[in-house]
Structures are given as structure tokens and as C-alpha cells.
Amino acid sequence: MRFLTAGESHGEALVGILEGFPAGVAVSGDEISGRLRLRRAVAGRSTRQKAERDEVRVLGGLHRGITTGAPIALVLPNAGRAAAAPDAVPRPGHADYAGALKYGLRDAALVRERASARETAMRVALGAFPLRLLGSLGVVVAGRVVRIGEESDDRGFSASLRSARAVLDASPLRCLDAAAGRRMASALEAARAAGDTLGGVFEVCAEGVPPGLGSHVHWDRRLDARVGAAFLGLNAVRGVELGTGFALASLPGTRAGDAFKPGTPPRRASNHAGGIEGGMSNGQLIVVRAAMKPVPASNLSVPSIDLRTGRSAKARSERSDVCAVPAAALIGEALLGFVLAEAFLEKFGGDSLAELEPRVRDWRERCRSIGRG
User: Fold this and answer.
1) DSSP code for 284
2) Are 269 and 258 in contact (CB under 8 A)?
3) What are phi and psi of 114, to 5 degrees?
4) What pLDDT, on a 0 to 100 scale, did the predictor assign at position 315?
5) Helix or strand or coil: residue 62?
6) C-beta of residue 97 within 8 angstroms of C-beta of residue 76
7) CA–CA gap between residue 246 and residue 205 (Å, rounded)
8) How far apart are CA 194 and CA 173, in angstroms?
9) Could you tell me which residues come within 8 angstroms of residue 212 by beta carbon, excluding any fewer than 6 positions away?
10) Range 37-42, long-range pairs (CB < 8 A, 24+ positions)
11) What distance in Å separates the CA atoms of residue 76 and residue 53, rounded to the nearest whole number?
């Protein structure tokens, strides 16, 4: 399974194709639109979100709301279109400078049009398909905000992800603790008033993933490597960790492992591994956390150079998100969905949901039988 997107931030539309997706999965246009609506409605967004309608059109791969096995083709018109004025002054922290050098351009606007986070709207739209497939196979994925600037939500997922999803979808900040949400909202308003931006950390978890997805035999088949690549491919993400992540570096080996407890199947005393050991899912909750830098663009011009003359210049300020972390928590659900759905298809095979479901049920039962003798 693979997907491809095309289109520019202020072009006519974004285009997406999802190939290798099984037949027989029910995905409605309302479901796709609903996820796009959540992406627009989260806190910290720019004024552009008020202009966008995100009315996605399905051109292929669906018949009466059921996938057919053919490539799924989506078109997402850009309502917030505006001709990008030529700009030879790259913005620090963006793709402008490196992209202009790579492709021999003197107009940084041509680079930023494709590098814009607007492209993630199509990833969210396409992500509705793997998330629906995973749901049919007993897997729930949920993303939340852990930190914005210096304010954090340490509550975490204490109940099932299915019940937590309802709380998160109703929260513009996509956080579970109301008091933490108020503190984060205040920090966002202060940054907006100052013409500044904030970064933070978001977390995406998957519940109900069976053991054995991914592989230890080759580096590029490791599930954790593929998760890391998907999240590092999201705009502004600068670090990814699974489970306890970087904090494991300070623990002795005797405390870093997730000890087994007797049971059928065996239980674990902790989840430092974040549900992935040796490149494979181990049946525990998969926990992925990503650090996102502040959006570089702001209302304040920053020092740069003119690519035509090499002289000092000020980068043009543009409308931008004050904070993209709440949006990233939602986008991250789609990213983890892509990786896990692909891993399911690799392990269990099948061209339709009708083929997949019994194979997954049989595997779950085999895994539950461990320890029965």
C-alpha cells in the first residue's frame, strides 16, 4: 500500500492517490470531510482555515461508499487561492533556501508552495481509509497534545482510546486535561498577541495492535523505523520517540525492560518499549511521541538575504499558524494509520476486508493461546 499527493498551497487543488488498498471497506464522504473539519477547527490555526471548505471529491476507488480495490483518487480544491508573488528572499527555518538551491530557482515562493503544511490536508483525507480499515480489524488510533511551549498535559490515556477519542475530538487543543488546556490556550493567545509562534510535543497511540507486525530480519522492515520515517516526514517535526523514548537513556538496564508476568497470554509490568520490540509490535499499546519546532513564519520580519543579489534583506512575513501542534496530533493519527495498515496487509495478505478479517481473528486467537500448553 502506498500513497502519493500533488498540488500547491495556493494552486487550484490538492490531489491524492492511495494504491493497494483492499476492497470491501466502508468509507463515506462525510467521514473524510469530518476529519478535515477537525483539522481546520483545532486551536492555533491561521486565518486561512476560515476560508477553506475542504470539500473533497472522490474520483475513483469507491462505489456507493465501499472501496473496490482500485486506486483511490481524491481531489481537494483550495478555496484560499491567491497568486503567489515572486519572492527572492528565503525565510529562515523553511524549505525556501535549500529548495531554491536544489532546483536552481531564484523564486523562493515556488518552493514554499509545495513545502507548505497545506499538503497535510490531503494526508488527512487519505488517512480516513487506513483508519477505517484498522477500526474494522479491532484497532483504535488516537492523537493528543502533550505540550505547547512550556505548558504540558501529563494526564495521558488512562481509559480506552475509543472513549478518549470523543474527548479529544471535542477539544480544540486535543488535550485530555481541561486545566492544562486552559493554560495552553492562554500561552497561544500570548504568542499570537506578540506576533510569535510556539512548538510542542504530541502523542499518537494505537490500541488493539496484535503482535508480529513488522520484522526484525531487515532494517527497512522494522516497524519502529517505518513509524519514525512517517512522523519525521511531517512538517516541522524534529524528533520522534517510542514509549519512554529518550528517558530510557538514563535508566539502568535492569529497569529499562518490560518484565513479563504470568498469564494467558503473558502480561507485562510496563510499556517502556511503546508496543514495539525488535522492530515488531508486541501486542501492547503503541505509543509514538513527536517534538515539533515552532512555525518559523510570524508577523515579525526576520533577517535573510536576497538570492538575486546576495545582500541583506528581510524575509516577508506571511499568515501562519501560531501553533501547529494540535493539528499535528490529528495528522499523526493518519500517519500511524498508514504505517499500521500497510503492516497488516503485509502480514495477513488479502485483496479484500473479507479475506483479512478471518486471518486477523485466527492470528489473535493463536497469540492468546500462548501459555496454555
Assistant:
1) S
2) yes
3) -90, -30
4) 85
5) strand
6) no
7) 17
8) 20
9) 280, 281, 347, 363, 367
10) 38/169, 38/330, 39/120, 39/121, 39/124, 39/327, 39/330, 39/331, 41/172, 42/172, 42/173, 42/174, 42/326, 42/327, 42/329, 42/330
11) 9
Q: How many CB atoms lie within 10 A of CB 263?
A: 10
- Closest by Cα among 148, 198, 206, 149 to 173: 148
Cis peptide before 265 (omega within 30 of 0): yes
% of the chain exceeding 90 in pLDDT: 79
Tell how far CA 253 is from the center of its chain.
Answer: 31
Give the residue from 144, 274, 141 showing the smallest Cα distance to 200. 144
pLDDT in tens, 267-313: 899 999 999 999 999 999 999 999 999 987 555 678 899 999 999 99
Question: Rounded to whole angstroms, how far apart are CA atoms 156 and 289?
Answer: 12
Tens of pLDDT along 154-212? Answer: 888 876 898 999 999 999 999 999 999 999 999 999 999 988 899 999 999 999 999 99
| Among candidate residues 33, 31, 28, 30, the one with its CA nearest the CA of residue 65 | 28
Angle between helices 353-368 and 120-136 (to 10 degrees): 60
d(CA 341, CA 353): 12
Q: Dihedral sign for Cα 293, 298, 300, 306, please.
A: positive
Tell me the one-letter amino acid at 352. S
**Which whole-number Å values give the CA distances from 58 to 71, 100, 116, 117, 276, in the listed order?**
11, 34, 23, 22, 35
